[in-house]
Structure formats: structure tokens, C-alpha cells
Amino acid sequence: MTVDALTDVAGVRVGHATRTGDGRLTGTTVVLAPEGGAVAAVDVRGGAPGTKETDALDPRNVVQRVEAIVLTGGSAYGLDAASGVMAWLEERGRGVRVGVDPSHVVPVVPAACLFDLGRGGDFRARPDAATGRAAVEAAAATGPGAPVPQGCVGAGTGAVAGSLKGGIGTASTVTESGFTVAALVAVNAAGSVLDPETGVLYGELFQGRVNYPRAEIHEAARRRIAETEARHALPPLNTTLAVVATDAVLSKAQARMLAGTSHDGIARAVRPVHLMHDGDTVFALATGTHPLEPADPVVLNEVLAAGPDMVMRAIVEAVRAATPVDGPGGAWPSYGELYG
User: Fold this and answer.
1) Residue 39 pLDDT level (bands cut at 50, 70, 90)
2) What are phi and psi of 281, to 5 degrees?
3) Other Cβ atoms within 10 Å of 211 Cβ, number
4) Which of 26, 237, 281, 340 is a Cys-bridge partner for 73, taking CB atoms 3.0 to 4.6 Å apart?
5) SS3 of the chain: helix, strand, coil, percent, to 5
6) Alpha carbon of 251 to those of 19, 64, 286: distances in Å?
7) What pLDDT was estimated at residue 235?
8) How much is the pTM?
9) Strand, coil or helix: what is 42?
10) Quick one: which H or E segment has residue 236?
11) Is it true that the peptide bond before 272 is cis, omega within 30 degrees of 0?
């Protein structure tokens, strides 16, 4: 049984820590790999990235597997959440062995942040090490193949998509050759997720899932969006983050290709994309339980093509699952509130 989520890749778990109220509108999401780790890679685009330990994922470097990936709000401050995840992993002896004692490990925990500072009203309210620990504990507490909460949770709590409320979304598929490929996205884009002429989500237009709203509904939505843009006159500071996972056996170089092609999913669902105020980052995880056929190397194309499809679908799911926010840090309507 599948749940159309990142957790359809066997062994992968997802946990959220959501922080709201008292000026907070932020959170952290942790993707926990199976024990022993997973091959990982990253592709970073846009002009304002905020990351940690991404150099370790370069195929030229020594680290081969990671135990967890952190997506977090709080801009660069929020990267501190990864420290809490590292501490939790160290306590369990999970990480790169660096000594004779099995407890002598260094967990490599790549992380990326999005900008949500002040969206709850308090600029200093941001994820910290305790938030990261809470998120990884939530991931560890889930069962195999557990559903993943979507919308305004975890790293998507304070996320904004253009002038709409953003959030967390996820999706999965099984390719013709039987590889599972799935994505989880925190949608916090400077660009727009909907066609201004029709009100249809770009990701749904690309899929051919077109259900045009009535003219009066679209006109009312355009007025609300214009009011939102006028209220938030500062330049948008954003970043969309994604994790794409597969059960295929991939090298770090092949995982890097998957991370790169998966950026196309953001480009299909967000316009424009990879701007100077975005730090769009896609991680790829390969758990390595389903070997590629050595006699048919082109089968890798199935995985590379599925990645962007799942990212695009996850963005649509995130925007549709988001709920509106109206607080001291600002007001952002949700797509569902505007269009149903």
C-alpha cells in the first residue's frame, strides 16, 4: 500500500516540528534515512542559498552516505536545527565512523533553509537545535510507509508562494521498471504558482488537470492577491526546498543528476524560478535496494524523468493543502480559500 508520499521509498521517514503562536510561524522538517544511511547529492540554484554540509555531497568528496536531511525555516539562523539532529544521531552511533569506539561518529546532516523571518510577528522566532531534535524524534516515531502531514507544517509553516500561502507537499510514483521515486517540497517561492490569467496552478496546467474557475471567483481572487502584494511591499525573500528519494542503486554522481533534473519540476510549477531572492535547493537520496540493470543503463532515465514530475506534483499538493494566515507578521490567503 502506498501513501503518495516520500515515505513510499522503503525505510525513509519524515518528521515535522511546527512552531506557531507568540510571534512564531516557522518550523523544521527532517527526512530520516534508513539506518546505515543513503547515498545523497544536492543541486543548489538561485541567488540566495542557505545551506550546511552540502560540500560533503560533492561526488569528488569522501562522504558516501548521510543519515538525515534537514529542511528548515528561519533563514541562516534556522540551520542551527541541524545540530539537534546531529546530537540525536550521535547518541545512537549513527554517522561516519572516525574512531575505534563505535560511539566515535560524526553524523553528516546536510541542511537547507528558507526565509520566513518575522512572518509570525517576531523576527527572532526561529528554529533551533531543540526544534531539529523534535523533528527527527517525530520522524523516528513514525512507522514504515507512514503518511506525511502536508500544508503549513514543519519547514512549510511560514512558507509563502508568491502572494499565496505556501507549505509542505509530497508525491510518489513507481516507474515502468519498478523503481519508486518520490519528492517532498517546502514551497516558499518568490515566483508565482498560479497563472494570473486563469487562476489555475501552473503545475496542474502542465499535467493537463485544468478546471478553470468561474470568472467572478477569479476576479475576486485577483483583488485579494493585489491587496496582499500591496500590504507586503518589501522585496520577496524566499527559497523552495526539495528532497527527491528513490530506492534505486545510484552513485553520488547519478544522484547529483537526479537532483539536477528535479529542479525542472520547480520550473514547471513556479514562474519565474531560481531568482536572486531564491536559494532553491534540491537534495537527492538513493536508498539502494533496487539495482539498475547493468545491461540497460538507459533505465536510469526513468528515475531522472520521474524526479521533476514528483517535485511538480508535490508543489501542487503543498499549495492546495496550505491554509491562510492573518497575523501580526502579515496576511497570506491560501489557494483553497480563494478558489476552493
Assistant:
1) very high
2) -135, 130
3) 10
4) 26
5) 30, 25, 40
6) 36, 9, 8
7) 63
8) 0.96
9) strand
10) none
11) yes
